[in-house]
Amino acid sequence: MDYAQLAEAEEPSIAAYKLIREIEREFKIAAGLDKQFDFAGPARNLGLLYRDAPGWPVSIGSKRKAREFLEQAAALAPDDPENQLNLAESQLKWRSRDDAEKTLQKLDAIWPAARTNLTGEFWEQSWSDWQSRRTAARAEFQKIFKCDP
Known about the structure:
The chain is mainly alpha-helical.
């Protein structure tokens, strides 16, 4: 994650794009060691990396790979709001109405239990972030598709 912040600071540059390859390698190693680590963190982070990195020929960005890894993270840790939010936000970005609707409904279904289970000071910042992102995703769905998810 530190490399990712460094790559963002140096972007756009050859050094930043080289760091992206290192980040990809490290997340793949982490996935090989423990796919479940940090609520499927390696798959989640690979998905975000592929989603947000510039595409070929400059870098490794890939909608197909992003979708694959974000869906994998949501399947490995389906009760984690972060995984469902990342997937929903990506589906909205890609204008995948049916997929985004299903993911937002899944997020609504897991929300009460997650709110009960992920408590305490450690989770306060995450809940603040998740709440605002959930609200923004629902608003984006309405804006794009002119209906409620």
